[in-house]
Amino acid sequence: MSKSSRRISTQALCITFFFVLSFFFLFFFLDSNLWFLKHKKPRKDHKKLSFIFIQDHILYASSIWCIAFHVIVAMNKVASDQKAHRAYDPKAKHTLFRVSSPYTPKAFIYSLAFTIALCVLFLLRSSIQTSFSPSTSSWAFVSTDNYTEELDKMGEMLKRSVTFLPLKDLRFADTALIDHTWFMSSLYDTHREGEVQYQEFPSESSQGRILCIKGHDTHDGSWNYYGLAWPRFLPDNATLLKGLTFVSYNHYNYDNIWHGLSSMVPFVAWHVKNGCKMGPARWILYHWGELRFNMGVWLRTLMEATFDGPINIEDFKDYGAVPVCFEKAVVMRHNEGGMTREKRMEVYDLIRCKARTYCNVTKTRIRTKRGSPEIGMTLFMRTGPRSFRNESIVVDIFRKECAKVDGCRLSIAYANNLTVCEQVKLMSSTDILVSPHGAQLTNMFLMDRNSSVMEFFPKGWLKLAGIGQYVYHWIASWSGMRHQGAWRDPLGEGVEKCPYPEDDRRCMSVFKNARIGHNATHFGEWARNVLGDQVNVRKLEQATSKRYGDCACATRLM
Questions:
Q1: Where are the alpha helices (DSSP H) in 384-460?
Q2: 458: part of which helix (H) or strand (E)?
Q3: CB-based contact 447:428 (threshold 8 Å)
Q4: DSSP 415
């Protein structure tokens, strides 16, 4: 390359460099000041933001400089080539590109690649800045402070978006037990056909939100509230409780063993469905949306046995009036509704087995000298309302019939003077349960499958008691027992006379707790039939080790 050409290239390089440098400072001054004016940033942020502006504009200016330099040098190269062509000597050795030339093919490729890389990098950075910047300018960018500020604003909006609604929706007061009930009425259950109905938080249906509760009223459920919040954006002053929380809604109460068990069975079903992997850290109990703090002893003991640990019933005394949110929560509102008989039997099998293990009950297989299996017949008596008026006569009737069957063993017990584990042990050795209608019959599921139940009613129940009189038919079926029918006292001797016609519903208050008579002929024949059926059918032998889904439980046999 000639001296003149090298001088032209050097001049081009310098001119281009100073042109781009001037352009850079001018553009930086205008763009940065316009941005500060538009966004009204405090002066203390100018230094930090100016540094970011310099980074962007150096990248942009470098790209322009490379492009301009290539254009000028290329023009210089064309001029040099034309001059060399005019002075071409065929005998002299000429090279189109000299090694000393700044524009060799290899240098061209490297510099071109570097220029393209700068342009691509600039375009990528510009596109990212344009996407996130609050400015509409193509040169706008987002700083870390601005991004954090926007996130904080969004978080505050999400916190304020949590809406608390009454746990008890009074609009559904007349249909509280229908469809999705008046408890948490804005939400629907998760329900697969044949499975338990439940709500789970967080879940896909809750869009990843968790359950929060506010208010701890024990007299009016409409003063207690629920809401859903994202775990990272809880309501102000909210407390997050770790672990699994079971939230139960019961239209009745948790002291009655039948109603209490009905409200607990769905939690056991969910537990089985999830492989018994996690027990509840706490329970929250609601009755009509009103907070309750106690379970009956019978129910609490069975739940402690089933979930392998103490039952912690939350009273919220440590949290005041602030919202309380739960890391994971399961809500039940429909008791056993929707579950198939097979699923219910699976649940009752697990509770039975866990209760026997908890109470250290050992099953003993006894046969008579003739090889007949022992048949345990238990008269589970009541005192006071719905007891037998002539109890000793009733006992004699069943004792005589039991004595006629090889291997029959008669037991007489009262539910009100037995501990929970004594009841579990008694039921474990019972094959035929004879008892008046009442909560003590709930114990029937603690017998082995295919055991029998004989039920007795006072006068007036058939016409006036409604569908509730069949609850022990249902639990017998759900737990794998055989309900052998019911006897209803037709005479009601000694019962207070109702001042209204006997089919008037107001008479139920008279008949509800009346005592029960007897019919020796009917009782004797009925007992013979049930005993014969129990012997002929035999009981289904329970496996020494049985699994309930992924929940292991073994009953020890001797």
A1: 391-403, 420-428
A2: none
A3: yes
A4: G
- What ranges in 87-173 are assigned the alpha helix state H? 105-132, 144-160
Q: How far is CA 347 from CA 219, 282, 432, 552, in A?
A: 33, 21, 22, 12
Q: pLDDT tens-digit profile of 521-556?
A: 999 999 999 998 877 765 445 444 454 555 778 654
| CB within 8 Å of 231: residues ≥ 6 apart | 202, 208, 209, 210, 240, 327
* Whether the bond into 266 is cis, omega within 30 of 0: no
Predicted TM-score (pTM) above 0.85: no
In this structure, the chain runs to a length of 558
Q: Which of 285, 300, 160 is nearest to 216 (CA)?
A: 285
Q: Supply the DSSP symbol for 107.
A: H
- Sign of torsion, CA 439 309 449 420? negative
Beta strands, E only, 288-406: 290-292, 324-332, 375-381
By the 10 Å C-beta count (0-12 exposed, 13-18 middle, 19+ buried), 280 is classed as: buried
Over residues 180-237, the pLDDT tens digits come to 578 898 898 998 899 999 999 999 999 999 999 999 999 998 899 999 999 999 999 9
- Which amino acid, 25? F
Q: What is the CA radius of gyration of the chain?
A: 42
DSSP tag of 133: -
Angle at 497 between CA 493 and CA 500, to 5 degrees: 140
**With 50 as the cut, is the pLDDT of residue 325 above it?**
yes
Give the list of residues 6+ apart from residue 162 with CB closer than 8 angstroms, or none: 212, 227, 228, 229, 234, 235
